[in-house]
Structures are given as structure tokens and as C-alpha cells.
Design goal:
With 225 residues, the protein is mainly alpha-helical. The chain is 71% helix and 4% strand. It has one domain. Strand 1 and strand 2 form a beta hairpin. Helix 1 packs antiparallel against helix 2 and helix 3 runs parallel beside helix 7.
Length: 225
């Protein structure tokens, strides 16, 4: 059994345990999905569905990623361990923006949540910090692999940085738009992340495949709850 398979099982177990603990708490304090009145009428039946499952999702990712970091350090795979931390910080940063949005929607009962301009500013700031860090504080290059045509291209730094920021923002905002329809996008995330994780495994991108495996299991479990 390789490490990716092991981490799939571990992350599933961690998510189940966290869900058993946290879901009843969310129900007890009546944290339920608030549907937008201008959305599809069919989604109104989801009103009150236990939500804010991102707490479970984020905790599982943090716990399992830190566990993977410790494992790689113990195995002497320092480079793989170090590559996990920046992308974990990126994930946590976006998670915080999402938490603030959910807090406004569910606790303050404001269905519009965080203002789009504030949300985009937060996502932009986090994306810039992450991109600057990997470009100037790691040995990350500017080569981009295009799976469809199976070729790589190298961009100059002044193009690579804004391109990377744009990709991160576009990907994250695509999920925001999907989630914004009814606040429940775990099934979509599971499908997309599975595809990206397989691509990462094929291209031997250890840190992406590990984090992807953790995220897949967390999403699938949340979708099934």
C-alpha cells in the first residue's frame, strides 16, 4: 500500500470522526443552510440543511497534512515535506475567507454574506502572498506543463507571476460561484479534485497528490453526510 492510499484511508477516518463530533454541534446551535430567494426554487427545500461543514473539511486537511509533513520528515524526504506547508497555508487562507463569508450568512443571517469586493480582495491578497513566496523563497521555476498536449513551456517571471495569481483566483472563484448557488458544493469539488489529483500522480507531484487525496476523502465524506 503506497502512501497516497494510506493517507486516503486516514483522511477518511479523521473526517468521519470529526463529522460525528461537529455535525451534532452544528445542529444543536441550529447552523443550517439559508437559501437565497433569488435562486432556483428547487433549492428552497435545502433550507436548514446542516452546513458550515468547511470546518470539518479544513480541520481534516490540516491534521492530515501536518501528519504527512511529519511522515516525510521522518523518512528524510525534506523537500517533499517543505512543499506541503505553502500550499497548506494557501488552503487555510482561502478557508478563512470562506469562514468569514459563512459567518455572515449563518450567524448574522445575511444571505449575501461577505461583499464580493471584500472577498475578492482577500483572495487576491492571499494569492499574491503565496505566489511571491514560492517564486522568491523557494526553488520553484516558471515552467508550466500542459497535460493536453504533453509539453512544457517556460514563461518569463513578469508573466508567470500574474498568470499564476490569475489561475489561483479563477479556480477559487469558480468554486465560490458554484457554492453560491446553494452553499453545498462538495460533490462538484470531489469530482474536480479527483481529476487534478490523478494528473498530479501521473506527473509525480507528491505534495499536490497528497493534499488532493486528503481533500477528496474529506469532500466525499461531507457529501455523504
Amino acid at each position: 500500500m503506497n502512501f497516497q492510499t494510506t493517507i486516503l484511508l486516514i483522511s477518511f477516518t479523521v473526517t468521519v470522526v470529526l463529522a460525528i463530533i461537529i455535525i451534532p454541534i452544528l445542529k444543536k446551535i441550529k447552523i443550517g443552510q439559508i437559501e437565497r430567494e433569488d435562486g432556483p426554487r428547487s433549492h428552497l427545500k435545502k433550507q436548514g440543511t446542516p452546513t458550515m461543514g468547511g470546518i470539518i473539511f479544513m480541520l481534516a486537511i490540516v491534521i492530515c497534512t501536518i501528519g504527512s509533513y511529519i511522515y516525510f520528515k521522518m523518512q528524510g524526504e525534506i523537500e517533499s515535506a517543505q512543499k506541503l506547508i505553502p500550499i497548506l497555508c494557501l488552503t487555510i487562507g482561502f478557508g478563512i475567507v470562506g469562514f468569514v463569508d459563512d459567518f455572515k450568512k449563518l450567524i448574522l443571517e445575511n444571505t449575501k454574506g461577505l461583499k464580493p469586493s471584500y472577498k475578492m480582495f482577500g483572495l487576491l491578497l492571499i494569492s499574491i502572498l503565496y505566489t511571491v513566496f514560492i517564486m522568491f523563497f523557494t526553488d520553484h521555476g516558471t515552467e508550466i506543463f500542459i497535460p493536453i498536449v504533453k509539453t512544457s513551456i517556460s514563461l518569463p517571471v513578469f508573466l508567470y507571476i500574474p498568470f499564476t495569481i490569475l489561475v489561483i483566483l479563477a479556480t477559487t472563484n469558480a468554486i465560490n460561484l458554484t457554492d453560491g448557488v446553494d452553499g453545498l458544493s462538495s460533490s462538484v469539488c470531489a469530482i474536480i479534485i479527483t481529476c487534478l489529483t490523478v494528473i498530479a500522480m501521473i506527473n509525480n507531484s507528491i505534495e499536490i497528490s497528497i493534499l488532493g487525496s486528503i481533500t477528496i476523502r474529506s469532500n466525499i465524506r461531507l457529501f455523504n453526510i
